[in-house]
């Protein structure tokens, strides 16, 4: 025996347990035939547990059985059937609600979870859903408040009896049409079942984009709070902190302090640096004492040229200075002290001990990392110096180092060119010698034939030995000359004055040798 329950979430086809629960099935079928379940809403929905309906008032305290309609208030409820025992073992089982003392009325619920054994002795199972489980899943996913009441009404719109084996009791008047719902039944204070929920209706495209971005930001903040990266969902970055990026590596904290201090009092200014090398990461945070100064700097300093770099300015999105004080006690903003251009103690010195233990002062970095870095990477920055003079000195040092590197590269290239030239000359001499050997070999062979084989071979070996000896001496002299030229070139590159002195000494020796008596006698 089947009944179709048409709901706002879909149709549910129910099979009734006629043999096991005849009285309960009679009550349910006749109430469906009297249209008593039409427009009843599911007033209690618990996800993966149950959804309850059957109360015309929608409060969970109303509803009466078919016997109460026929025989009066003394028969409003009837006693539940307990034999045989039917258990709540799976989703989709229909069970009558026990109103007390094992009495039943018109309210029933549908299970949404497995193995609900604790309901077996209290409530009476009388049917199951055989079709429409997708509608049951939609009901299970309904959004409810803390009292498990759905924000949008879910109602039974109509009931259709496919088969009724029970005869109608005397005095039962079946309505021809479905009765109209009363105003009290429809006025639940919730979103109507047929109402289209559209938050974007009547808004412009910009407002819709802003609303979507706000929802996405809130969802991300919730996730960050769950993983522990945010102290609370409502935590927001301070409005008086400015983010500056695309800085020149030579720009210092003092430079930014002086440049941005014209917009207002600066509480703290810090260029973020590498922990080991203390080199600038080319972005900084500037904290003003009020949001108005921060806004003025944002509108005036974006794309401004500082140290030959176009900087970018934006409001800070960092919450690193928000310190969580504990559950229910909120957060505390850890800031610095006001900036005075005439003083040098504007750095953050009144920090908590926990943070001071993590931070290494600029004076300790040269001692700690001196073996790893060059000395110029650890210039003390606790005293104000002329930024331009400091940069000019550093630029001059960089130019000298670049010039030395270029000279070294030129020397390497010169040496490589000389090696390639020597290699070509050796190859040419070797080919020339081989050609000459082949010509001489042909000549010698003809001579040997004329003079005799034995004497010709001995002469040929002597000639070849003498020729090889001369070539080896020539190559040795050529290598000595190349090495001497290279040494002279290095000496001239290393010390021009010394080379000039050597040339002067050589010239004096030549003059002295030419003016000696022996040479003068030879000249005569």
TrEMBL record:
<feature type="compositionally biased region" description="Basic and acidic residues">
    <location>
        <begin position="374"/>
        <end position="475"/>
    </location>
</feature>
<keyword id="KW-0413">Isomerase</keyword>
<dbReference type="GO" id="GO:0003755">
    <property type="term" value="F:peptidyl-prolyl cis-trans isomerase activity"/>
</dbReference>
<comment type="function">
    <text>PPIases accelerate the folding of proteins. It catalyzes the cis-trans isomerization of proline imidic peptide bonds in oligopeptides.</text>
</comment>
<keyword id="KW-0539">Nucleus</keyword>
<feature type="compositionally biased region" description="Basic and acidic residues">
    <location>
        <begin position="483"/>
        <end position="507"/>
    </location>
</feature>
<dbReference type="InterPro" id="IPR012677">
    <property type="entry name" value="Nucleotide-bd_a/b_plait_sf"/>
</dbReference>
<dbReference type="Pfam" id="PF00160">
    <property type="entry name" value="Pro_isomerase"/>
</dbReference>
<dbReference type="GO" id="GO:0005634">
    <property type="term" value="C:nucleus"/>
</dbReference>
<feature type="domain" description="PPIase cyclophilin-type">
    <location>
        <begin position="10"/>
        <end position="161"/>
    </location>
</feature>
<dbReference type="GO" id="GO:0003723">
    <property type="term" value="F:RNA binding"/>
</dbReference>
<feature type="domain" description="RRM">
    <location>
        <begin position="240"/>
        <end position="318"/>
    </location>
</feature>
<dbReference type="Pfam" id="PF00076">
    <property type="entry name" value="RRM_1"/>
</dbReference>
<keyword id="KW-0697">Rotamase</keyword>
<dbReference type="InterPro" id="IPR000504">
    <property type="entry name" value="RRM_dom"/>
</dbReference>
<dbReference type="InterPro" id="IPR035542">
    <property type="entry name" value="CRIP"/>
</dbReference>
<feature type="compositionally biased region" description="Basic and acidic residues">
    <location>
        <begin position="340"/>
        <end position="367"/>
    </location>
</feature>
<comment type="similarity">
    <text>Belongs to the cyclophilin-type PPIase family. PPIL4 subfamily.</text>
</comment>
<dbReference type="InterPro" id="IPR035538">
    <property type="entry name" value="Cyclophilin_PPIL4"/>
</dbReference>
<keyword id="KW-0694">RNA-binding</keyword>
<protein>
    <recommendedName>
        <fullName>Peptidyl-prolyl cis-trans isomerase</fullName>
        <ecNumber>5.2.1.8</ecNumber>
    </recommendedName>
</protein>
<dbReference type="InterPro" id="IPR035979">
    <property type="entry name" value="RBD_domain_sf"/>
</dbReference>
<feature type="region of interest" description="Disordered">
    <location>
        <begin position="333"/>
        <end position="524"/>
    </location>
</feature>
<dbReference type="InterPro" id="IPR002130">
    <property type="entry name" value="Cyclophilin-type_PPIase_dom"/>
</dbReference>
<feature type="compositionally biased region" description="Basic residues">
    <location>
        <begin position="509"/>
        <end position="524"/>
    </location>
</feature>
<dbReference type="InterPro" id="IPR029000">
    <property type="entry name" value="Cyclophilin-like_dom_sf"/>
</dbReference>
């Amino acid at each position: 025996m089947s009944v179709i329950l048409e709901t706002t979430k879909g149709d549910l086809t129910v099979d009734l347990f006629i043999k096991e629960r005849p009285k309960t099935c009679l009550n349910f079928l006749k109430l469906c035939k009297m249209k008593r379940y039409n427009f009843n809403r599911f007033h209690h929905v618990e996800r993966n547990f149950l959804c309850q309906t059957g109360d015309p008032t929608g409060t969970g305290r109303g509803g009466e059985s078919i016997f109460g309609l026929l025989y009066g208030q003394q028969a409003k409820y009837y006693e539940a059937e307990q034999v045989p025992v039917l258990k709540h073992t799976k989703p989709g089982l229909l069970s009558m609600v026990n109103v007390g003392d094992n009495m039943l009325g018109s309210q029933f619920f549908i299970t949404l979870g497995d193995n609900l054994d604790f309901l077996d002795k209290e409530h009476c199972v009388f049917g199951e859903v055989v079709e429409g489980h997708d509608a049951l899943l939609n009901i299970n996913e309904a959004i409810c408040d803390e009292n498990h009441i759905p924000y949008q009404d879910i109602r039974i719109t109509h009931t259709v009896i496919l088969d009724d084996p029970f005869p109608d009791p005397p005095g039962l008047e079946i309505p021809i049409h479905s009765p109209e719902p009363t105003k009290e039944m429809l006025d639940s204070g919730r979103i109507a079942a047929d109402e289209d929920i559209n938050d974007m209706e009547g808004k412009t495209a910009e407002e819709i984009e802003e609303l979507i971005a706000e929802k996405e930001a809130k969802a991300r903040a919730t996730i960050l709070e769950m993983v522990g990266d945010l102290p609370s969902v409502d935590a927001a970055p301070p409005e008086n902190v400015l983010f500056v990026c695309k800085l020149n590596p030579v720009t210092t904290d003092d430079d930014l302090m002086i440049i941005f201090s014209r917009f207002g009092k600066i509480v703290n200014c810090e260029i973020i640096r590498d922990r080991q090398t203390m080199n600038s990461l080319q972005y900084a945070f500037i904290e003003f004492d009020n949001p108005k100064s921060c806004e003025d700097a944002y509108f005036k300093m974006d794309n401004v040229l500082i140290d030959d770099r176009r900087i970018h300015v934006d409001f800070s999105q960092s919450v690193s200075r928000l310190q969580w004080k504990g559950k229910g006690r909120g957060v505390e903003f850890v800031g610095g002290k006001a900036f005075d251009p005439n003083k040098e103690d504007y750095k953050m010195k009144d920090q908590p001990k926990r943070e001071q233990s993590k931070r290494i002062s600029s004076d300790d970095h040269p001692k700690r990392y001196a073996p790893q870095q060059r000395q110029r990477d650890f210039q003390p920055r606790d005293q104000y110096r002329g930024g331009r003079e400091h940069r000019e000195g550093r630029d001059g040092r960089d130019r000298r180092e670049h010039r030395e590197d270029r000279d070294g590269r030129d020397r390497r290239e010169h040496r490589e060119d000389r090696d390639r030239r020597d290699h070509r000359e050796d190859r040419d001499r070797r080919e020339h010698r081989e050609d000459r050997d082949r010509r001489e070999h042909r000549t010698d062979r003809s001579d040997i034939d004329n003079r005799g084989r034995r004497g010709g071979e001995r002469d040929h070996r002597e000639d070849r030995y003498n020729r090889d000896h001369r070539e080896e001496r020539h190559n040795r002299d050529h290598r000595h000359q190349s090495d001497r030229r290279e040494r002279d070139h290095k000496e001239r590159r290393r010390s021009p004055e010394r080379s000039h002195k050597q040339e002067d000494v050589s010239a004096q020796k030549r003059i002295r040798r030419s003016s000696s008596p022996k040479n003068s006698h030879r000249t005569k």
